[in-house]
Amino acid sequence: MKKILMKTPIVEMDGDEMTRVLWKRIRETLIEPFVDLKSEYYDLGLVHRDETDDRVTVDAANAILKYGVGVKCATITPNAARVEEYHLKKTYPSPNGTIRAILDGTVFRAPIIVRGIDRYVKNWKKPITIARHAYGDVYKNTEFRVPGPGTGKLVFTAADGTVSEQTIFEFKGPGILQGVYNLDESIESYARSCFNYCLDVKQDLWFATKDTISKTYDGRFRTIFETVYENEYREQFEQNGLTYFYTLIDDAVARIMKSEGGIVWACKNYDGDVFSDMLSSAFGSLALMTSVCVSPKGCFEYEAAHGTVQRHYYKHLKGENTSTNSVATIFAWSGALRKRGELDQIPELVSFADCLEKAVIDTIESGVMTGDLALITTLPDPVKTDSFGFIDAVKQKLDELTKE
Ligand code: NAP
Ligand code: MG
Q: CATH topology for 1-111+296-404?
């Protein structure tokens, strides 16, 4: 078979532990036999991050800005135990955090829907994608424990020295105070990433805050989303038959439960933290959750939502058999290849990405799956494979699909 040719490289970011093992196998078995892969390779494995003082992560992020598309393996975010295990020079920050900051991006998480892995909410027929504004609010708060009677104030000193002051509360006894902030610029970038993503996947956007109560703070979020929509996106949304829908957060939650899915739900930071965990467990499995970081300028970085599956890796190192699910990592590759194909107008690359995803879904729906899914599937008599056995089974299906 003639391999599909590429024009522009994909930024490939290798990672750690079990997902690094799967990464190599996916590339060799499911990509390289079909695609004349052009990739610019960055080793984000912890050893190499340490060797380069984490420079490699920054270089990889800048390469995504340059080329527009990246695919990333899960990586270790070091803690004290990892510093000891890998004899690190320091506790490096999360690579995902570093990359997201450089892209000024937003992370969208979407479940992969497969027959036989049931949702807990029976009317969710299509994926619900969730976006989280990962900047500011309570995650960067300043807190104060009020010891006793006194006045809590909100004070802002402008650069020119002008002072604005408001009383928050007259305390008659002990209590608590909290200050939070956000930036117009960050909210605007977030809004653009959300509208871009929706245009990309051709889905409606929902956004919700509590602006009936928080008229200025949440109200600002609402206004910025509306302004960005009206000025930059309404026309494109209408051309694509898409809608932007704003509602109150409690109403959004009620509607989500009753919806059939197929929408993108943009959340403020805290709402996204809470509801992304709710959605991923309700959709069945973290190993079936994909993740893409989208920049306001339209750069895309694809990955799996899960981590490096450390426990399985230690088993693998001991020579024991593992049954680690590679589906979300394969979908990270297919997402990146499809996007590359769309941007470079290579229809064969787009259809290859479709075939690869279909091969994965057909494999699972035929009853062949890794242990994590075999435990929860409603299909009768599932066949449990080991980590590599699953990839080999997908390869068989892919061979059949690409022959047609
Ligand atoms: P994890 O790698 O997501 O795994 C937690 C548990 O979930 C596993 O032990 C396994 O359960 C199950 N699991 C997750 N993915 C699976 C898969 N593909 N197939 C089968 N089972 C799967 O989280 P962690 O163990 O808490 O974190 C390990 C490392 O990953 C940490 O160093 C963390 O920093 C990093 N991390 C990276 C990212 C990222 O790069 N995006 C995200 C999260 C965490 P059983 O053990 O019960 O089989
Ligand atoms: Mg959380």
A: Isopropylmalate Dehydrogenase (3.40.718)
